[in-house]
Automatic annotation (TrEMBL):
Protein name from the UniProt record: Aquaporin Z
Location (main, coarse): membrane
Subcellular location, record wording: Cell membrane
Organism: Phenylobacterium koreense
Keyword Membrane recorded: yes
Membrane-spanning ranges: 35-66, 78-101, 121-142, 149-173, 193-213
Membrane-protein topology: Multi-pass membrane protein
Keywords carried by this UniProt record: Cell membrane, Membrane, Transmembrane, Transmembrane helix, Transport
InterPro entries in the cross-refs: Aquaporin-like, Aquaporin_transptr, MIP, MIP_CS
Family stated for the protein in its record: Belongs to the MIP/aquaporin (TC 1.A.8) family.
Amino acid sequence: MQKFVAEFIGTLTLVLFGCGAAVLGGDHVGQLGIALAFGFAIVAMAYGIGSISGCHVNPAVSLAVFIAGRMNAREMGLYWVAQFLGALAGAGILAVLAGVASGLGHNGWGPGYNGEFSMQAALVFEVVMTALFTIVILGSTAAGAPAGFAGLAIGITLAVIHIVGIQVTGVSVNPARSFGPAVLVGGTALSQLWLFFVGPLIGAVIGGALYRLKVLR
């Protein structure tokens, strides 16, 4: 139960801080500010709940950890439920503050969305960036990695991914982060949600497999 609550709170915080920066402060802080909001949210939660649940706050991360052999399927399922509910709660709080019409920082691609990149570009971005993200997470939390620095490495990586990719997809690399806003916004955001499940989960399989097969140690 402690792990469930920690993952719920952590994912809620990620969505509320990251998407909240985009919706409530985007005009003032710009793309860099939004990127840092997502990154700093992960740093904060890594040190706040990392000792309880590992601070996955992301179904793709939990899948990569499972594939790498560091958690069992039952625990992964528990994490997924907590993460999706947390993301929905975070998006719900943001909807109360800004209204659903604000878009809630939902992910997307194509005409009318940020840089209007293609579906193919969006899918490639999500796969590659999630793979790199999970590699950093698995490496920085492995035995022998410098103690105490994982949260910084993971948060900085997420911030850089957002700097690179906000114009492409708004950056998901996290099915739960995409799920919360899309469910409440509906329409195109919901119809495009599949890509933000498929891309990150494929990337997570790649990242996890590299450690499972001992290509990376």
